[in-house]
Amino acid sequence: METRKGKPRILTGDTPTGRLHLGHWVGSVERRVQLQGDYDCYFLLANMHAFTTRADQPAEIRRDTIEIVKDWLAAGIDPERSTIVLQTEVPAIAELTWYFAMLLSFNDVMGNPTLVHELETKGLAGKHSFGFPMYAVGQCADILAFRPVYVPVGEDQEPHIEMCRKAARKFDQLYCGVPDRTRDEDYEKAGGVFPIPRALIGRVGRLPGVGDGRQKMSKSLNNAIFLSDDPRDVQKKINRITTGRQSPTEPGDPDNVLFEFVEAFIADEGRVAELKDRYRRGDNLGDGHVKQEVAAAINTLLEPMRARRAQFDRPGGDDVIVDIIRAGTGRANATAEETLYMAKKAMKLDFGRRVLG
User: Fold this and answer.
1) Which of 6, 15, 54, 143 has the highest count of CB atoms within 10 angstroms of its CB?
2) What does the alpha-carbon distance between residue 44 and residue 234 come to, in Å, rounded to a whole number?
């Protein structure tokens, strides 16, 4: 959809579960920074979703919410060009979650591959809260409340976007009379309230964690390099990568976790090709040397982020962050309330338009 800014709109965000890491950067955050000039960008802090697994940690969730905004600003998100949204301060999201829950089946939600994976990896199968699977429905509302056309996400989040697309189609077909054979890109033209958003996958769909690379990078797995890590920590963590190779003269297969980092962070394609060639031939190129080059490239990327973050890691910095959140959320509510009224009108629930103070 075209917005008041005359630009297509995007929506994406993060759940405040801790600081952002390089997996977030290559999977989504890098793309967000790049898109700010050409799109009407909304970036959501999904702090309500954090309560699905951490309801007993409200102070930590508040802290992590502020820390994520610091990471965003450090990475290059500009609150003058983009709208930062706090989920719990946008009541339209919670109401739309309820309506979408009536359109998605139990199997739609519980069969979501991302949800199934989280239940397994977090050891929640059979003992999760009733609210935990609701976050998958809530993500549909997070997105559709702002009627975006694109959602920049990491590869692992694509199933959530597919469920969101299903909810949008069902709503538009049921309440707006959009024919079920309508092309996704034509739903609004056919009278639908919601566009059918598309996922934008980052340049690296899945960045492995440091170690053997069997798991994706994750704070909970203790295998992450954070955007706020100092140079020494970056090198120490990169040194944890294992390939099984024993000698710099041993021919090696660059199809390994170390070279996934080479390709993700060394910008010079010629140098990447050279490293791969020498590695294959066992041309006196040890893993240790490659790790040093990777760490140097990552530190070059992170150094300006560290400098920008330092502006907020000082007395009064948190207050500045809260002011940025409040300003963005005020703008976001205007959009979300407009969407909610459109949806309620389609559902014959338009008995009055809510005014937020």
Assistant:
1) 143
2) 28
* Tokens 């992590």 sit on residue: 64
What is the predicted pLDDT for the residue at 357?
Answer: 66
| pTM > 0.85 | yes
Residue 325, helix vs strand vs coil: helix
pLDDT at 236: 97
Note the pLDDT tens digit of each residue in 303-313: 999 999 999 99
Fill in the DSSP letter of residue 28: I
Per CATH, domain 231-310 is 3.40.50.10190: no
Q: What is the mean pLDDT of residues 37-65?
A: 94
Model confidence over 211-234: pLDDT tens digits? Answer: 888 888 988 889 999 999 999 999
* pLDDT, tens only, 282-296: 999 999 999 999 999
Domain ranges of the chain: 9-206+316-346, 231-310
How far is 21 from 24, CA to CA, in rounded Å?
5
Q: What is the Cα–Cα distance from 140 to 39, expressed in whole angstroms? A: 20
| pLDDT tens, residue by residue, 159-204 | 889 999 999 999 999 999 999 999 999 999 999 999 999 998 888 8
User: What is residue 207's DSSP assignment?
Assistant: P
Helix (H, G, I), strand (E, B) or coil at 16: coil
Check if the beta carbon of residue 341 is closer than 8 Å to that of residue 353: yes
Q: Which amino acid is at 226?
A: F
Instruction: Please name the amino acid found at residue 31.
Output: R
Are 163 and 112 within 8 A, CB to CB? yes
* Residue indicated by tokens 């140097």: 296
* 40 SS3 class: strand
Integer Cα distance of 49 and 13 in angstroms: 11
152: three-class secondary structure by DSSP: strand
In terms of CATH, what superfamily is 9-206+316-346?
HUPs (3.40.50.620)
Classify 211 in phi/psi space as left (phi over 0), alpha (psi -120 to 50) or beta.
left
